[in-house]
Amino acid sequence: MQAAIKKHVAYDLSRFDNRSIVREQVSKSKTRGEAKARKRAVVSGFAVFCYLLFLGLTILTLYSYVALTETAHTAASLRDKLMAAREETQMLEIRKNQKIGSDKIKEYAENNLGMKKICKAQITYICMEPGDKTEIIRGEGYERDNSGIVAGIAYGMSKLLEYIN
């Protein structure tokens, strides 16, 4: 029965079946697309130049960061060395001041040079009164000339004046 129904169809749909035409067009467009794809596979010189330029700039940027890091590291190590040198300088100054202190100088003068502290007998007083005269008073440590009587009297007078003053 179905065969009979198909024979009496009012419309012939085979005229409207354009699947074969569409298939041909699709196959033609595929061949055109493949041809375009083949053409696109070729890289232009400008694209290569841009790629190399980008790569070069990236490498230069990385190199500058590396150089900056090395410079910062060198500056930090030099700063540390400077601080250590300043500390050492301060320590050497302290040691120098300890060695050159007044107690050390006094000890060196007494022990190595044979120097002693001054006593009153070594002091000579010069009395300047108004007028043109000068009087020298001699102390105990001063050696006197015992060769004459005048010298002995002068020595006694100087002792008397020293006692009065």
Key phrases:
165 residues; mainly alpha; 2 strands; 66% helix
TL;DR?
This protein is mainly alpha-helical and 165 residues long. Helix content is 66%, strand content 4%. It has two domains: 46-117; 118-164, no CATH class.
Can you give the mean pLDDT? 78
Q: Helices and strands: which structural class?
A: mainly alpha
**Tally of separate helices:** 5
Beta fraction of the residues?
A: under 5%
Quaternary structure of the protein: single chain
* Number of E strands: 2
What does this entry look like structurally?
- This protein is mainly alpha-helical and 165 residues long.
- It folds into two domains: 72 residues; 47 residues, no CATH class.
- The protein is 66% helix and 4% strand.
- The protein is built from five helices and two strands, in the order ααααββα.
- A two-stranded antiparallel sheet has the order 1-2.
- A hairpin with a 7-residue loop joins strand 1 and strand 2.
- The chain is rod-shaped and about 175 Å long.
- The N and C termini lie far apart (171 Å).
- The mean pLDDT is 78.
